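Re: weekly structure request thread

Next one in the queue (280 aa):
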Amino acid sequence: MGTTVAYAVAARPPVNCRLMPESRHVVPESSTPWEMTSSGGGWLPHGYHLDPHSHIQGQLVYAAAGTLATTTERGTWVAPANRVTWTPPGFVHSHRFYGRTDVRLLTIPVGLCGGLVAHPSVFAVSPLLRECLLALTDRQRFRPGAYERLLAVAVDELADTPEQSLHLPEPRDDRLRAATDLLHADPGRPAPLAELGRAVGASERTLSRLFHTELGMGFHRWRTTLRIHHALAHLANGLSVTDTAMACGWSNPSSFIDAFTEVVGQTPGRYQAGLRDDPK
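Done, posted below.
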């Protein structure tokens, strides 16, 4: 914690790439591992994964198109194109990208980090914040002081924005971890909490208590969030809305659409259509 760890590729796509602030494209390279510069943007392919690492400064990662998942020891945060992830200095984290993703990376100096929450999170992207993020990662040149002023506007906008985390916390208790592992392996599993308890050697009451005390939410909310995480990945991979609903455990597409819209802020069809949009 507190030392910079280089990005490393756990699951490398067919070509190595370098994400560069002066280019809005993924640039193939023959021998250099994929790495991110301090701020900038570029396109990444579906399924791209970055191993755990940390930074001495804060970091905003915005998927202007596509979806980003950020994982820390505290769980996983998912950010579709209407949200931005925030990782404070020193937090070890990894990233995975779903759909062809227009990644925008912005380093936040330590002196500005105090204005934001001290834990990883996801925030809604207002129209003003979106334009700031795009300008800060697109422009190659700024007038003296202009970059710093625009960055301060982005931080101020985030500081006034409530968290909207698609956060899936992970347990430490062995019994609860065993139960959640079963759901991770099969998010569509319809088993009630009592059945999961029997499978892992814990009572329904014990598991229910552990969900609330360790994860800060009830069983049904946690499982719904897990299913939404998987649904985002399925939709990004081209699965239909109906097939995604069935794969993730909803009894019908309508209930899936309602749950997805409530959590993500847009319908699954609109989310998937946005992933198919040609880059500008």
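The radius of gyration is 19 Å. Confidence is low (pLDDT under 50) at residues 1-37.
Next request, please.
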